[in-house]
């Protein structure tokens, strides 16, 4: 399922594994946790191989998509589980009798103190005696995080922890988890299918598709400088515009038979694909120089406006413009589009980035 | 505005059936338990509590309660533990699970009366396969040593197996000392497959992520994960299994009727068999009804306990 994935994560880094569902990101996380066994290769945590270690000995903690709280235990008991399982012996863990065994009361008091500290940090002290069934989604989420951090592990693994929350709470929890990362200064490995989550929270983002790691980079690099057309298409909303193009013998790039002024490529005589972000596309009154098109749909978001246009040569393009443009262009209008060629990304026919784009200013 | 009476018509069929099939017979049994009615008699006398007095006074009824309760106390824990054990083990199998499920469930589906006849042959003191095998073991030295405890330094003649080899193996169904245990063994064998299926269903309902969470939280052995996740998550199943098994154990009849008829010396005189013997064979409907009422009280007590636990403790959401 995973194909030759190699990933180095810095100490204290917030790394997000992102990709469409079924791309293998959760599998990779479960392999790191030790819940699944890799067929080949090594996992090192803190420089030490953990391939042979049980999940409980890898010094990691995990937050699950369903939170996986123990429904029969109270919030306090849930958070205490990782400590009880490690610090107390089997007999000491028994109800009633366990309290009276030698040494148990001291350890129990320590556990209580650590649990209280965790709950305090997450502001859930008042929920201590409740059971998970009596909590809201956001509260359960916090309890799951509390259970993960109570032991101060070397790394936090989070498997789509926000996907069961409603949209508003999700945005709020994003900020909270980022804040928690800053305070704990521990490594976070976070899996999500939501590219917006990845872009807003991560120090670095690892984009995965079909079991392959396509690119690992900071969010801004990933957006502006993708290595692969699949990365370009996955990152950014609205989706990047892709147009078929051709490079002629002299290196000039043309789209639909029309030469794009100022855009040159070294891949002479080849078909290429041109990716243009919506903010690099502008509409103009109909003129002979640009590509002719018709406005088919417009969205007004208040701070910006999106225009969906149908090109005469075929294909749809989305343009992001200032809302004032809504007065100039209306649905059904025949207009022209212009691309900011400096921001155009060129990919070869297979989708690999062509880094041999040549720009010649002022043609 | 006139109130619609449609609701009455909607519940009427269910209520009528319940009254005819359930409530009325119970009331009749309750009423009969205060009479000396016999089937065929034109009339009867009210005898007050004398039927219940008989239940308390005569030693055969003391033996009846003793046998029924002992049977329940043996069969319930054994069949619940075996059912849970089998379910957990089958769940962990990568293949072959269906095979074991079928084998363990077969006694549940089979007619107990027919099975009882098979057991009667197997337990026959002379030609039965069980005593035959035990006698055969007496002549195999390592088995003799193992079963008598001689390998541990025990005097072979003083052990159960050793002395049985010297004299004779028990009449499983004909000996007062063994009959109830044997019937309880057959009851356990018959019922535990049913508990296994209930537990398998319960285990299937436990979210897999909980086991992953338990593994990360430090439950590094299957034993620890069982106590942290499986056992508590089966709470509702435990209550249901315990209730069903208790009621079914109280109801045991087929094996008693086919194998011992309550004997020897009333050691297997179970309540439902006593009901049948008094009410049908001896045509003492009043006494039979009194046993029935006591039986109902037992079952009701178990059911109410279940309702209490379901409402209070084991519902997590």
Instruction: Give the % helix of chain A.
Output: 25-40%
Gyration radius from CA atoms of chain B, angstroms: 25 Å
In N-to-C order, the SSE pattern of chain A is EHEEEHHHHHEHEHEEHHEEEEEEEEEEE
* Tally of individual helices of chain B: 15
Distance separating the two termini of chain A:
49 Å
Q: How does this model look, in words?
A:
The complex is a heterodimer of chains A (363) and B (317). With 363 residues, chain A is an alpha+beta fold. Chain A folds into two domains: 14-231, Rossmann fold (3-Layer(aba) Sandwich); 239-359, Nucleic acid-binding proteins (OB fold (Dihydrolipoamide Acetyltransferase, E2P), Beta Barrel), CATH 2.40.50. Chain A has helices spanning 25-33, 75-87, 90-93, 97-100, 104-122, 137-149, 167-184, 195-201, 219-224, 229-234; strands spanning 14-18, 44-45, 48-49, 60-63, 155-159, 187-192, 204-209, 212-217, 241-247, 252-255, 258-265, 271-276, 281-285, 291-300, 305-311, 316-321, 334-339, 345-348, 357-359. In chain A, β2 (44-45) and β3 form a beta hairpin. Chain A is elongated, with a radius of gyration of 26 Å. Chain B is built from 15 helices and no strands. The longest helix of chain B is centred in the N-terminal third of the chain and has 34 residues, at 59-92. Chain B has a domain at 49-125 and 170-312: MetI-like fold (Orthogonal Bundle), CATH 1.10.3720. The model of chain B has no long low-confidence stretch (mean pLDDT 83). With 317 residues, chain B is an all-alpha fold. Chains A and B meet through β4 and α2 of A and α10 and α11 of B.
